[in-house]
Amino acid sequence: MSKGFRNADATQELSEQMTTETIKEILEADREQASHAAEVRAHGGYGICEGCGGSIGQERLEAIPNATRCVRCQADWEQANRL
Ligand SMILES: [Zn+2]
């Protein structure tokens, strides 16, 4: 086993770790959004964008049942919350 292979393994391990972290972050964000959406639904705000107060749109709700913002507000929010 050459040193080159070991280095490749270490790099592989590191990138797998980062992927796991990224997946965990995405799952965590999904869970937060799901419980937030349930709260919004409980208060009768389902389908209403919490950014602009407009309609989120049937198609978007079918694609993303937990959406609480319209496409435009979601894009703005993601830009503002980018790490
Ligand atoms: Zn909006």
Which descriptors would you attach to this protein?
mainly alpha; binds zinc ion; 83 residues
Strand-helix topology:
Layout: H1 3-42, H2 58-63, H3 71-80
The structure holds zinc ion.
Structure description:
Helices cover 67% and strands 0% of the residues. It contains three helices and no strands. The chain has one domain. The site of zinc ion has 8 residues, from helix 3.
Give a nutshell description of this structure.
By secondary structure, the protein is mainly alpha-helical. Helices cover 67% and strands 0% of the residues. The radius of gyration is 19 Å and the shape is elongated.
Compute the average pLDDT. Answer: 88
Describe the largest sheet: none
Number of domains: 1
Q: Element order, helices and strands?
A: HHH
Number of helices: 3
